[in-house]
Amino acid sequence: MARKTIIAGNWKMNLLPLQGEELALGLKEGLVNKPNLEVVIIPQTALIPLAQDWVMDCGMQLGAQNCSNNLSGAYTGENSPELLRAFGCTYCLVGHSERREIFNESNEFIGQKAQTLISMNITPIVCVGESLEERESNKHIDKILGQIQAVFDQVDQEGWSKMVFAYEPIWAIGTGKTASKEQANEIHQIIRQHIIKIAGESAGKSASILYGGSAKPGNAKELLNQSDIDGLLVGGASLKVEDFSKIIEAF
Ligand code: 13P
User: Fold this and answer.
1) Does 108 qualify as catalytic in the annotation?
2) pLDDT tens digit string along 113-152?
3) 194 flagged as catalytic
4) What is the 233 CA–ligand 1 centroid distance (Å)?
5) Among 98, 140, 168, 188, which one carries the catalytic annotation?
6) What per-residue confidence (pLDDT) applies to 1?
7) Which of 94, 165, 171, 212 sits CB 3.0–4.6 Å from 113 for a disulfide?
């Protein structure tokens, strides 16, 4: 199965309704003639019911930034994957480093969220990545593979081929410092080999692995041209129509 190319904009905790609408509608024009590309916008949860209209009839997909590991119940403040699905979300980030670091989310908890999302037919975008300290002490590969393994430990076998992965080195997020195309592609290959080892040839070869961390118009093309980079997860540059449109054009 051919791997899907995905360019996703993680808006993080930014944009009010009118700003979000202007951005989403501004992106629509650039989507013409990109039938082999999946463009996803990932707004704050409270914008999702509105964003359902913004993505209508243009092929753009809607994603969420986080969700509960349960479908319903006494979990005050959480967002149910069932509700996200009802509002048209087809993707949801899990394990973004900001969730792992600021909100102390564990590997196990992140794996449970992935499983719950799959049960609702929402594709989890599982984020993994190392800190600068871990890279400099050569612990980055163990860290990343541990994060991947923990998700497979929580997800039923039928779900193994239903996940998307995003390699986001923490030192590259919001810093303007992008991993080089060689550095990124090397880690993507290691991740793919590990998925093949755990889940088999077909799941590994068909898994889309995105790169995130200061992706921008100036480096999008060279990153997308790498053998194992199947798309981009964009933060800051996804908040401006011109920048995100240029990134889309790079495909
Ligand atoms: P930046 O593109 O702002 O570095 O953010 C990357 C990111 O965290 C996307 O999830």
Assistant:
1) no
2) 999 999 999 999 999 999 999 999 999 999 999 999 999 9
3) no
4) 7
5) 168
6) 65
7) 94
User: Relative to the CA of 212, which ligand 1 atom is closest?
Assistant: 6
Confidence of residue 33 (pLDDT cuts 50, 70, 90): confident
> What would the two tokens of residue 218 be?
């100036």
Q: DSSP letter string over the chain?
A: -PPPEEEEEE--S---HHHHHHHHHHHHGGGTT-TTEEEEEE--GGGHHHHHHHTTTTT-EEEES---SSSSSS-TT---HHHHHHTTEEEEEES-HHHHHHS---HHHHHHHHHHHHHTT-EEEEEE---HHHHHTT-HHHHHHHHHHHHHHHS-GGGTTS-EEEE--GGGTTTS-PPPHHHHHHHHHHHHHHHHHHH-HHHHHH--EEEESS--HHHHHHHHTSTT--EEEESGGGSSHHHHHHHHHT-
In the chain, what is the straight-line distance between the N-terminal and C-terminal CA atoms, in Å? 20
Would you kindly state where each structural domain of the chain is located, as residue ranges?
A: 79-251
